[in-house]
Amino acid sequence: MVRSPAWSTLTAPLVHQNPVMLQILGICSALAVTTTLATALTMSVALTVVLTLAAGVISLIRRHIPETIRLIVQIVIIASLVIVIDQVLQAWFAELSRALSVYVGLITTNCLVLGRTEAFARHNPPPRAMIDALGNGLGYSLVLCVIGALREFFGKGALLGQTVLPLASEGGWFTPLSLMLLAPSAFFLLGLMVWAVRSLLPEQAEAPQHAPPPRAEVER
Amino acid sequence: MTKGLWTRETVALLLLAAHGPLALMWVWYGGALSRLVLALVVIGGWQLVFMLARAQAPSLAALVTALAIAMLAPQDLGVLRLSLGITFGVVMGELVFGGWGRNVVHPATVTLAFLGFGFPAFAWPGFDAPVGWAAIPAALIGCVTGVMPVGVIGGALVVGGGAALTGALPEPVLLAGGVVLVLLVADPVTSAATTPARWVNGGLYAALLVLFHSGWDGAAPVQMAVAAALLASLAAPLLDEAALALWVARRRRRHGQS
Predict the structure, then answer these.
(1) Contact A177 B8 (CB under 8 A)
(2) Residues of chain B contacting residue A177, judged by C-beta atoms under 8 Å apart
(3) CB-CB contact of A45 with A141 (8 Å)
(4) Which structural domain range is residue B193 located in?
(5) The pLDDT of residue A96 is above 90
């Protein structure tokens, strides 16, 4: 089966070129909004929509953006889209919008969004740019949802607000891991995911910066 | 002297011997041996896994780690939660870095911090006075045989002793602080490695203990001591870096640029 370039542009950022796990981009929001799966899902959708639309718009006018002020132009476009998304969330999903607090607004400065528009959308026609942006958004969403699901599952014994493991405080047997609801656990989980992926795909690992000294104990 | 008597395991054995008085007193005054056995089984299992998977030699330092966890972990956690904490501490604190001798923080410290933050509802253990005092012979054996850094213990004694004399550290905190000092802070691997940094490291531990005692409401003495040990061992590389920078600057002033 011959894969079309569009298909590989879409699927490469899911695991092989994952923006969060390989390039460690955009982890600020990835760590902050993953205490429950619902907020992680909302954030994923918001970021994917913003990223795809911004890539499309910037790619459309890529020949007209003056080189010297391109970052400002990109940020203005992204910020306008973020404001629209934020208003939509506030209008129809008020509770989730409160749970996400400032992090929807901070999509503007998410380095993942700016990184893709700067590196890809500025040099490619709109369809390709949007497919790439969609793929990167989905890659980000994948990591966010996995971490959000794990944190909610072990921290509250629930998924999407539905109790899965009956809590000990309500007559069940499961004592929640309070650590999972604190920010450090997101670092641990992200680190473990990066470790697992790089063990399976060794080509993602960076070259070591230092060589360990030879072992003296071996020769007796 | 890499081919002589002093291998990594000699250090581990002497460290274990230094902890002998502490362990004996703890067992004598009703220490939970079942927790020690559980900790040994879990740590041994993970050492076996890493030996088979990454060819990392297992170390007798596992005994020291198990003793520290059994003595200091919160009580009535149950097998599952305790195993989870030990797994996290031993794997993420020690084994992924390449085994004992290459770790940045003491695996027992990581385990205890994990258990303390993860299950805040469980009570921390307290120590009878004889167990606390057994930290003194333990520190003496460690310092005489050279496996415990004298500077760390000295620095902690200066700051902690001063605080105790002025009444800033009451007896339960002092006992818990002494036990944690011997078990976790005066570890040859994770404490500072240069002499001046060692004194600062020990002093920092005692100062943090005083700070936590005065400002942390509702914390048990062992909890404060473990938190102080975690922060002190995280600061150790920074203190070493500062000591080295000072040394280089002094050399440069004496000998000029070169």
Answers:
(1) no
(2) 118-119
(3) yes
(4) 8-249
(5) no
